[in-house]
Design brief:
The complex is a heterodimer of chains A (196) and B (157). Chain A has one domain: Glutaredoxin (3-Layer(aba) Sandwich). In chain A, the strands form two sheets. Chain A has a five-stranded mixed β-sheet. Chain A has a two-stranded antiparallel sheet with strand order 1-2. Chain A is built from six helices and seven strands. Chain B has six helices and no strands. Chain B has two domains: 94 residues, Cytochrome C biogenesis protein (Helicase, Ruva Protein, domain 3), CATH 1.10.8.640; 51 residues, no CATH class. In chain B, α2 runs antiparallel to α3. Helices cover 71% and strands 0% of the residues of chain B. Chain B has 157 residues and is mostly helical. The chains are: A alpha/beta (196), B mainly alpha (157). The interface between A and B is medium-sized, with 19 and 16 residues.
Chain lengths: 196, 157
């Protein structure tokens, strides 16, 4: 009886230690996106390169699509462009959501023209993974998606449901572990889809 | 020392009020009630990009966007709860500094209470046990009493 009582503080101490030890290595920025497993939000936004061309959610449906929130001002986005270009060559549909950095800047023709120049230059240099780019001028779409910065990526299925999310760059390892298994053509397709 | 304390206190008060004013200046309201709701919201909503700042204090791009959105929604006449729901739907519970009590968060309140109660019970029980039995048997007590008597009588004589 006495030994049993002695165990209580030791076990309590161990549990607290394990809890704190785990906290030591947890990533506080790794917060699950609230939109996961929900339908992609509705939107109506212009093409980055042509303000007369409008896109809606309908343009994203029909096949599995990777939505990449990015900007030329974002350094990490540069890192993932070459890898995503490879993905496009493998037949993955990738659509860009352009996240403008000019938070307070008034929308003006000159501003967009500069952005377009930067984008064209950068994509020519590092590869162009995008079928098209949606210009999220006021970042309303990004806000609806719960985006906290660039780059962020969402994988949506053919019906427009968000099935995966990544905060930060996508590289080969991330793609193989988190995104590739979700495609219906991958091995055990239906199973891995249901799990997510 | 007291003077220094008062000086520090008034200085921090000036800082706090100037921050509050700065937020209010760039977001003008006609309605005092809406202004109050907006002021409370920017204090209570957390910047999703920063680790521990509300959106009133942060100048991260996403915090500015959330502030603008909050302003827009409050101006439309939405209530405080409606705006919080809007933000939580998009950014999860992380975005609100006052999370609801549910099966997961209830432990934050329960565990300290349980520990405090357990400690109080432990101390009470231990105290009572020590009072009841002094751990000395009757024979030794008698001997001790005899010794005391002996010394007392010695002192008298």
């Amino acid at each position: 009886m006495k030994n049993y009582k002695l165990l209580i503080p030791i076990v309590a101490f161990l549990l607290v230690s394990i809890f704190l030890y785990k906290g030591l290595y947890s990533d506080p920025t790794n917060i699950e996106n609230a939109n996961l497993a929900k339908p992609f939000p509705q939107f109506q936004l212009a093409d980055l390169m042509d303000e007369n061309k409008l896109y809606t959610k309908q343009d994203l449906l029909g096949e599995y699509t990777l939505i990449n929130v990015w900007g030329t001002w974002c350094v990490t986005c540069r890192v993932e462009l070459p890898f995503m270009t490879q993905l496009r060559q493998q037949g993955i549909k990738i659509v860009g959501v352009y996240y403008d950095n000019a938070a307070e800047a008034a929308f003006g023709e000159l501003d967009v023209r500069n952005t377009r120049k930067d984008v064209t230059q950068m994509l020519a240099q590092l590869g162009n993974p995008f079928q098209f780019n949606i210009y999220d001028e006021k970042r309303d779409l990004s806000l609806d998606l719960g985006v906290t910065g660039a780059p962020e990526s969402f994988l949506i299925d053919d019906k427009g449901t968000i099935i995966a999310h990544r905060r930060g760059a996508i590289d080969h390892r991330v793609w193989q572990n988190e995104f590739a298994p979700l495609f219906p053509s991958a091995s055990g397709s239906q199973q891995s889809l249901e799990q997510n | 020392m007291k003077k220094l304390f008062i000086a520090l206190l008034s200085f921090s008060f000036v800082l706090i009020t100037s921050v509050a004013q700065a937020v209010e200046e760039s977001y003008p309201f006609d309605d005092a009630k809406q202004q109050k709701i907006f002021g409370e919201l920017v204090e209570e909503l957390r910047c999703p990009k920063c680790q521990n700042q509300n959106i009133a204090d942060s100048n991260a791009m996403v915090a500015i966007d959330l502030k603008n959105k909050t302003y827009e929604l409050v101006k439309q006449g939405q209530s405080k709860d409606q705006v919080i729901d809007f933000m939580v739907q998009r950014y999860g519970q992380f975005v609100h500094y006052d999370p609801p009590i549910n099966m997961v968060t209830i432990w934050l309140w329960l565990v300290p209470i349980v520990i405090a109660l357990a400690l109080v019970l432990f101390v009470l029980k231990k105290g009572r046990r020590e009072k009841e039995s002094t751990g000395v048997d009757a024979e030794s007590l008698e001997q001790a009493q005899a010794l005391i008597d002996k010394f007392e009588s010695k002192g008298k004589s």
